[in-house]
Amino acid sequence: GGGDGTASFALFIVFKALQANPDRADEGLADTGNGFIWTNDEMETYFPALAQLPLGSANDLGNILGWGQKYPGDASGPQGIPIPCRGGPNSASGALHRWFSAVIDPKTRISNFDCWGMMPEGDSDSCDFKICELATHKNGNLVAKVDGKGQLAMQPAGLPVPFLICLYFGLGLFGYVVSRFQLNRHETPIANRLEYVKQFRKVILGSSPPQLQRRNEGLRVDCDGKRKFPTKDDKDARNYREVGFLNINWMGHGLHGSSDGACCRCAIPDPVRFDDGQMDFFVVKGVRTFVQNPGTVLRTSKQSDMHVTYTAPQGKGIFFQYDGEARFAFHPDGKPFSFHIRRVIKMPVVIGPFVNQRLTGKLSDGPVKFEFCGDTPGQVDQVRKRIFKFLKAPDAPDGLASELLATKEELAKAGFPLA
Fold first, then answer.
1. How far apart, in whole angstroms, are the C-alpha atoms of residue 166 and residue 257?
2. Dihedrals φ, ψ of 347, to 5°?
């Protein structure tokens, strides 16, 4: 259950439960040689399959895996079909019973699922940037006059710390919109969707605050060892609002992707797949992108990884979003920074009764298993080390939170107005 961020949280809990503890080796928590209490073969065979049961209103992961967007018993069923409230097999309680029976039935189909990770470049053990979150100014506004200019206020980021990416990732517009939305959530799905539209409109029509460069200026992305963005000179990046990738074919309650460039979700000849070992890279130039390719389907290209480099003067950075969580990345001294997004885990997931293979593509019939991913043994070991860093307490000096989360002192050093 839960929202789209629940998948990475569930993985955190499973990894934490399987982490070895030498001090409790006599209790069955001895290290089998990989840092876990299960051997690699046991992890491959017995790692639990993830099932995302939606409790919200726009659960992208639950929906693409075939469990619907709402639980049976809500005002409408998983596919928006009203369910009678009276008793019996066709009632809400009957539908809910069938829903839970399907997820625990050993005969229910499972599939491989790719999970990506924000990793340090090369052989490094840590990333060379910091992250924070958008905040409201003391007057309650998102943008306020500071030194005569309309500026954004920042605050230290809370948990979760960015690492695992199960659904999608983007740099630029979407991260900024989600950051603003996170500070203006409402209690109903309709009100939240209207808030998204409101914040999107304000970002598109408003001027850029001093903390941001013009659109995606300063951003460079290399995929599979080749420059992917910007395709022309570096200045061309300022003409694009969003750069990212899809791992599932459902984003923000309606956007999809296709490397064939289809325009509507009823006919997607080469859809985004979550089991093919590739990310579906996309760029958005603005409204023009949707005019050139009308509909709800983004034109994508299959890639195996993303090397992200960002260059900006001190006091500027870039918003990004992953699986619906938004953060702001920057370097306190204004130096260029970089990170590498690649596949880090292949894991089993449970496929629900409402799966739509027009959106998922034909699911693979190959063996379903868990594994840590990497092109070399060194890359696989780097993933394990990153996971153990991810599992450490937020205040651990050698943990992921200490590495990435900016302090108030670092925010002040960068020159950001503080909340």
1. 16
2. -140, 160
Question: What is the Cβ-side half-sphere exposure of residue 409, based on CA atoms within 13 angstroms?
Answer: 0
Q: Count Cβ neighbours within 10 Å for each residue of 192-217 and write b for 16 or more, e otherwise.
A: bbebbeebbeebeeeeebbbbbebbb
Task: Name the strand (E) or helix (H) holding 153.
Answer: strand 149-156
Q: Do residues 46 and 52 touch, judged by C-beta distance below 8 A?
A: no
What's the longest Cα–Cα distance across the chain?
Answer: 66
Going by C-alpha positions, the residue among 198, 233, 205, 204 that lies closest to residue 219 is: 233
CA distances from 106 to 7, 48, 112, 321, 351 (A): 21, 12, 16, 35, 12
- Asked if 159 contacts 396 with a C-beta cutoff of 8 angstroms, the reply is no
Task: Report the alpha-carbon angle 254-255-258, nearest 5.
Answer: 135
**Peptide bond preceding 160: is omega within 30 degrees of 0, i.e. cis?**
yes
Contact 340, 306 (CB under 8 A): yes
The DSSP secondary structure of 6-63, one letter per residue, reads HHHHHHHHHHHHHB--GGGGGGTT---SSSBSS-HHHHHHHPPPB-----SS--HHHH
> For 291, phi and psi rounded to 5 degrees?
-75, -45
pLDDT, position 148: 82
Contact 102, 108 (CB under 8 A): yes
Rounded Cα gap, residues 280 and 298, in angstroms: 10
Q: Give the residue carrying structure tokens 């292949």.
A: 346
Neighbours of 232 (CB within 10 A): 9
Distances (CA, A) of 101 to 10, 45, 354: 20, 23, 14
As beta bridge partners, residue 280 has: 246, 302
> Whole-model pTM?
0.91
Q: Give tens-digit pLDDT for 378-403.
A: 999 999 999 999 999 999 999 999 99
The residues with which 349 forms a beta bridge, in sequence order, are 50, 111
Collapsing DSSP states into helix, strand and coil, what is residue 154? strand
Tell me the sheet residues that pair with 112: 348
The answer to whether 312 and 219 have CB atoms below 8 angstroms apart is no
Rounded to whole angstroms, the Cα distance separating 333 from 312 reads: 10
pLDDT (0 to 100) of residue 84: 44
Helix axes 173-182, 189-205, angle to 10 degrees: 130
Q: How many CA atoms lie within 13 A of 279 on its CB side?
A: 26
